[in-house]
Amino acid sequence: MSTTVSSSRPGKPQPGANGTDTRAAAVSAKPVTWKTPLLLTAFGLVALVFFGLLAPSRTASFGISTGSDFFQLPALEVNAFAGGLVLSILLLGLAAYAVFLRTRDRQVPGWLTVAFIVLFTAAFLIWVVGGARTPSISLAGLIAGSVTLAVPLVFGSLSGVLCERVGVVNIAIEGQLLGGAFTAAIVASVTQNPLIGLLAAAVAGAVVSMVLALFSIKYLVNQIIVGVVLNVLVSGVTGFLFSTVMQEDSDRFNSPPGLDAIEIPVLSSIPIIGPILFRQSLVGYLMYIAVLVVWVGLFKTRWGLRVRAVGEHPQAADTLGINVNATRFWNVTLGGAVAGIGGSFFTLVAIDSFTKEISGGRGFIALAALIFGRWNPFGAFFAALLFGFADNLQSIVTIIGTPVPSQFMAMLPYLVTVLAVAGLVGKSRGPAASGIPYVKG
Amino acid sequence: MKRHPRLVTDWPGGGAFCWLHLTGPQPACPRAAPTRLVLQPHIPSGGSLDASRLVRVLKLELRGITKRFGSLLANDHIDLVVEPGQIHCLLGENGAGKSTLMNVLYGLYEPSEGEILIDDKPVSFRGPGDAMAAGIGMVHQHFMLVPVFTVAENVALGAEPTKAAGFLDLDATRSRIKEISDQYGFDVDPDALVENLPVGVQQRVEIIKALVRNANVLILDEPTAVLTPQETDELLDIMRQLKASGTSIVFISHKLREVKEVSDTITVIRRGKVVGTADPAASTTDLASMMVGRAVSLVLDKEPARPQEKTFEVRDLTVIAPNGQHVVDGLSFDISRGEILAVAGVQGNGQTELTEAILGLQERVSGSVRLDGKELLGRSVKEVLDAGVGFVPEDRKVDGLVGTFSVAENLVLDLYDKPPFAKGISMSPAKIMENARARIGEFDVRTPSAAAAAGTLSGGNQQKLVMARELSRPLRLFIASQPTRGVDVGSIEFLHRRIVAERDQGTPVMIVSTELDEVMELADRIAVLYKGKLVGVVPAGTSRDALGLMMAGIPPEEHSHAPQAGLSAGRTTINTSDAEGGDHA
Description:
The complex is a heterodimer. Chain A has a 3-stranded mixed sheet with strand order 2-1-3. Chain A has a two-stranded antiparallel ribbon with strand order 4-5. Chain A contains 18 helices and 5 strands. By secondary structure, chain A is mostly helical. Chain A folds into 2 domains: 35-131, no CATH class; 144-384, no CATH class. By secondary structure, chain B is α/β, with parallel strands linked by helices. Chain B contains 19 helices and 24 strands. In chain B, helix 14 (429-443) packs across helix 15 (459-470). The two termini of chain B are 18 Å apart. At the A-B interface, helix 1, helix 12 and helix 13 of A face helix 3, helix 4, helix 6, helix 7 and helix 19 of B.
């Protein structure tokens, strides 16, 4: 007799045992749709036409090493026409396999989608660089820049993870980033200490979050509306203070000392990996730590189990003696602090001063990264990296001069966001009680 | 394959079990009341114990508990004593105040008046945490399980064993689950995701949750409402085992057969008051009238069917699920006018898909469904309804009602766009209210007013509301899924009479039910489904055992060859998969 649950039904002669097994499996299986195979085929054809057949027969060169690396690797050189053709044929092959799987009523596996994205990106890169005025870019610089641009996104989406996992939708990430950026600039300028500025940014983010928590948890105001209002409020307040206080005396109030990159000797000279992992500012290192800590915390500790239970089924948590609303309040506050630290990146690391709307909508991209990353810290991290990559690629490609109008390239990060969230995520399931206030009884 | 029926008393290591209760690690729970060690004098029949059971039990007493919600008096000075090691049943109709009382006991509600005593000492619970610490566990009617968590995570939640720095020690929980599973023969995989488990197994997870917290009193709130007959029998056996090991049980139910089968004491509650106690040996009729407050007839008076011409025909109906499985597989049957066909089967054997396919709610459907000679497949739901099909869905809350709409609006959900309720693009509120008052009176729907939100009504009244809507227009076919699930005795009687009345008006009626009692009571013919296929169609008088075998997929012509391990054996069996060795890893 098998050991599955269904076999324990008593009094049921043999034929019953297996039948219930398959039925249980059937209920949990996701419906197979044509969406992914068709989407892949369409993109494969686009790749074949544009990146393959219409590509110029020039050599695209990708630098791998930078001058400071302790050993040099030769640059990667690819003929744009041949490379594009080969890659697009591979892409069509993957798409054909997806169609084949669909006809057999089977799911398209995740690795296939990921492989497709990677190959498509490579084909796109070769095509863009091959057609540029100077057909050469530094791959190392492209990747390191992507990580840098992704830092505030990662903090933002971690904030989203912390809030949504506990059942509160955090639309105010943008406001928390902006609040953090502003506070970091002004506090660091006044104290001339970037560390105090960093701390102040966390506090500012937490304060914005507390307003969100108070209104959505205690006064049961719609969480989306509170979030949107907070974004507008923070934008207005920082904009006002910027023009009335900061611009009046920018030496005193808007010249924060920056947080410089801390190089770890030897390790930072490894090609490609070195600059990403071992040549970062304090905020950059904090990002890696935060991703790890949030993941371990959520999935390996008592705190995390309770947080997730509150976000999934608050009533169950309540009947087990967990204080639902207190758990929510403090986690939302923590989420705000994390986003605040992300905001300090703008004024302490990237640019050495605050300007109006310095976060530039990245809080919303962070929200998309959260969904694309399926409410998982690592998923959010890689999703944020993807958006950072698109962002960086856009600026580099504009510099080297491409046949594509720069306005189109500027759309790239947002296009990637829309495609990623709408097309490739599939039906991802967030925490069940996210956005629903908990009222006892 | 050997199948050892495992009796309550003969699980391996019964002695070790007692030892565990005495010397096993007890969590440091702040117990307000002193605990007693008592000799359990009760030895279950059917076997003797080689050692006396020494278990810690506590006496629970509720004194003058009153709970008001605004002007509503949900509990009115209720006194209740749960003696140690007893199964104490709270019997009462839906909305009588049983669940409120138990929520007070579990610390979820604060009583307006009255006190709770444990071992004669008054205690007060500020939350479920206090109640659990005092040894009270509760299995809620709607399970309090996180669907996306594993069994172990659900069991650990709130009382998590941890290693250093707050890291979860799920291994400790896993071994506790295994320990309890082995003791009671639960056969629960600690790493299974709860949402993938059948309802019956989820319920065991809830019981494990309480046992892990060393509950001495277990409150089971309507535990059988969601179970199939087999699962119910298993649960009753589990309850007997728990009692034998010294756990007191407060069993909330309105199903008389179960109550009589396991209870030691019965307290009947009606409209928030204790109306008396009853002996489990009392007749079901007496219990029912005590509960409802008037004489009820439990036997349905039903004239023999006078079937007329066949107007509803299903031929080779096949429904393919999104994953490619044939959930309904080549069904063919007919129903005549003036006849009730009951579709029986264990839940999940294609009943839902069958009814949905007829109504036009399923996508991949083939075959033919003809009503009065007209094909129904491939038509929109609206067209099917207009063809005269009345449909009561199995989940009234999700598919039968719009909870936030008023009772009056719910009563015209199918006719809102037709005269007299609509004129052109406008609706006639006066006509809708008039209709509502008539239906509410006719079906005895207990509602504060026709304008009250349907979601605020009790389950039985919601069901009456759906039935009232569906039966209030001329029908050519009436389909009802689980027509009385979660409905109290008084309402069941009424709903059954309405269904038979519809039949007597000459409507073909199809009833889908997993309750064998209901099937046997209503049916003129019984069709049994198993894995989407029709096992057979048998006449109304077929025996319970024969139907049970059919529900397991054995067609009637093979019954003489089948092993006699049918339903009757199932009564005493808890688990047959790990009778030897107790290890099922």
